[in-house]
Amino acid sequence: MNIYQKINAVRAAVSYVQKDKSVSTGGGSYKAATHDAVTAALRKHLIDQGIVCVPSLIDSHTDPKGEGEKQYRYRATYSFDFINADMPEEKVSIVMEGHAMDNADKAPGKAISYAKKYAVLKLFEIETGEDEESRYQREELDTEAMILEMAKSETLDQLKTAYSDAYNACNGDLKAQKEIIKGKDAVKARIQAAAKVAA
Predict the structure, then answer these.
(1) CATH topology for the 1-137 domain
(2) Cα(151)–Cα(44) distance, rounded to whole angstroms?
(3) Residues 127-152: what's their mean pLDDT?
(4) Of 11, 13, 22, 87, which has the fewest beta carbons less than 10 angstroms from its beta carbon?
């Protein structure tokens, strides 16, 4: 079979991937299909059909951290080549962007996982039940609820996790991010003050 027939065979074999993770937005949550879930659903069928996916980095950029920010934003563009293993000269390529937030060295890995997941979902026309186009249109950012969630933190580690969830949920909204940072600083000061009293 040529590469298009093989892609069609995989489409016939896999039509849906179950959402397997709950993602917090600070003011709520939604279910999503992870990279691992998509890979698990497709891997056997790609092997059976002899389709190999080869990713290539086209471009990447790391945005500098803003004042008071703990994480940086990494942006990258990849080309994913889906190659016919029986006729390697045949391939279908998809260019996809990936963005990720992190405070250490995991952002590039997150970005390529995100980009590959969506390249695969779109090429093989797999349903997940996610509504990417309207998720953030439906959800208004409730920074007050996010700050209240951070305020439940009793340790700096708990605050770090809650802050990361809230900041990422802002989805680039600078005003909301500033409110989250201000709320985080207030909670941090309270936790540190309590620690001094306990000592």
Answers:
(1) Enolase-like; domain 1 (3.30.390)
(2) 45
(3) 70
(4) 22
Confidence of residue 18 (pLDDT cuts 50, 70, 90): confident
115 Cβ contact list (under 8 Å, min separation 6)? 76, 78, 80, 96, 97, 98
CB atoms within 10 A of CB 126: 19
Structural contact between residues 78 and 58, judged by C-beta atoms closer than 8 angstroms: yes
Rounded-to-integer distance, Cα 50 and Cα 82, Å:
10
Write down the domain spans for the chain: 1-137, 140-199
- Contact predicate 72/107, CB 8 Å: yes
Per-residue model confidence (pLDDT) at position 128: 84
Q: For 105-168, give the DSSP string.
A: S-HHHHHHHHHHHHHHHHHTT-B-S--TTTHHHHS---HHHHHHHHHT--SHHHHHHHHHHHHH
CA 178 from centroid of its chain's CA atoms? 22
Task: Kindly tell me if the per-residue pLDDT of 163 is higher than 50.
Answer: yes
Torsional sign, CA 79, 85, 89, 91: negative
- Give the mean model confidence (pLDDT) for residues 132-151: 68
